[in-house]
Design goal:
mainly alpha; two-stranded antiparallel ribbon; 10 helices; 2 strands; about 65% helix; about 0% strand; flat; activator; transcription coregulator activity; Mediator of RNA polymerase II transcription subunit 4; transcription regulation
């Protein structure tokens, strides 16, 4: 850059010296003045280039300083991260002993699950699994009166009072209780409903109870519905059956309207086609009539005209009238 500027300065000095010499010799020349002007313009262009070069140099120097500062900052950050990583690795972890066993569910989850299955843990009212809990136990069989008398006669009394036997012992309270229980059993059996009327009074009579959902209930539940949606490729999240049904009805209505519009268009096209055919038929008929008339007129014009003979028809008519 300095060499170029020096050459341009020398050119300006030479042109200026030559012009001054020509003026001093009273022999000025326009060419020398133009050379001086050209040299001055070249010098000005070189000075501008020098200014641009200096600006670029200053910018490059500033970028170099900024790059060096950023490199230093990056190195500091990396060294800090390395030291922190080393400290983290060297730090010992604190292990707390488990106070109680840990499970994947909480107490609230367990209570919520128990609340949901509570309706399946006890049978509903009236469900007896086919057992009749209101019936009394079967009565005990009592010995017949003849057998009781026979056993009493075979067993002699152990004591005698002046040769006369003691009277028979009175029936004990336990025997009276058994007799009353048997009578109550007979009465309750007599007042019990017949077997063919029990289902009418209690529809759940004889129903078998299971403490878990049966397969039919599971297949008809919400989880089975979700599984069906998954199988058909539908995401249950955000699925609205009413919205789907509404869209389906709208599509069916739009399809019906489209079919009706297509039918009307076909009928309109058929009607236009019939009208066009009728018009063409009328035109052909009219053309045929015109052609026939034209041919008839041409044929009539070619015949020689026959001379008509004048007849006095009026005179004949007058004679007839007389």
């Amino acid at each position: 850059m300095e060499k170029h500027l020096d050459a341009r300065f020398e050119r300006v000095e030479k042109a200026l010296t030559t012009l001054i010499d020509s003026i001093a010799k009273y022999n000025p020349s326009e060419k020398l003045a133009e050379d001086l002007t050209t040299a001055d313009k070249n010098l000005l262009t070189g000075l501008r280039s020098l200014e641009h070069h200096q600006n670029n140099s200053a910018r490059i120097e500033a970028l170099r300083q900024e790059t060096a500062a950023l490199d230093t900052q990056t190195k500091d950050i990396i060294s800090t991260l390395w030291s922190m990583r080393k400290e983290v690795k060297n730090t010992t972890t604190t292990t707390y002993p488990a106070a109680s066993p840990k499970y994947q569910f909480t107490t609230s989850d367990l209570l919520s699950y128990a609340r949901r299955i509570s309706r399946n843990t006890l049978p509903p009212p009236g469900v007896t699994n086919g057992l009749d809990f209101g019936a009394s136990p079967p009565p005990q069989e009592l010995p017949a009166p003849e057998e009781a008398g026979r056993s009493a006669a075979q067993t002699p009394n152990a004591s005698f009072n002046n040769g006369v036997g003691t009277p028979a012992a009175a029936p004990t309270p336990s025997a009276n209780g058994e007799v009353l229980a048997s009578q109550a059993t007979v009465t309750s059996t007599a007042t019990e409903l017949p077997m063919h009327l029990k289902p009418v009074v209690n529809p759940s009579e004889g129903t078998v109870f299971y403490a878990w959902p049966i397969e039919g209930d599971v297949r008809g539940g919400g989880l089975a519905g979700y599984q069906q949606l998954f199988d058909t490729g539908i995401d249950p999240k955000g699925y609205d059956p009413e919205e789907v049904e509404r869209r389906k009805k709208e599509e069916e209505q739009a399809k019906k309207e489209e079919e009706e519009r297509a039918r009307l268009e076909r009928e309109e096209a058929d009607r236009r086609m019939r009208q066009e055919r009728e018009r063409m038929a009328r035109e052909r008929e009219r053309d045929r009539q015109l052609e026939a008339e034209r041919r008839g007129s041409v044929a009539g014009g070619s015949r020689p005209q026959q001379k008509q003979q004048f007849a006095f028809l009026d005179l004949d008519d007058d004679d007839d009238d007389e």
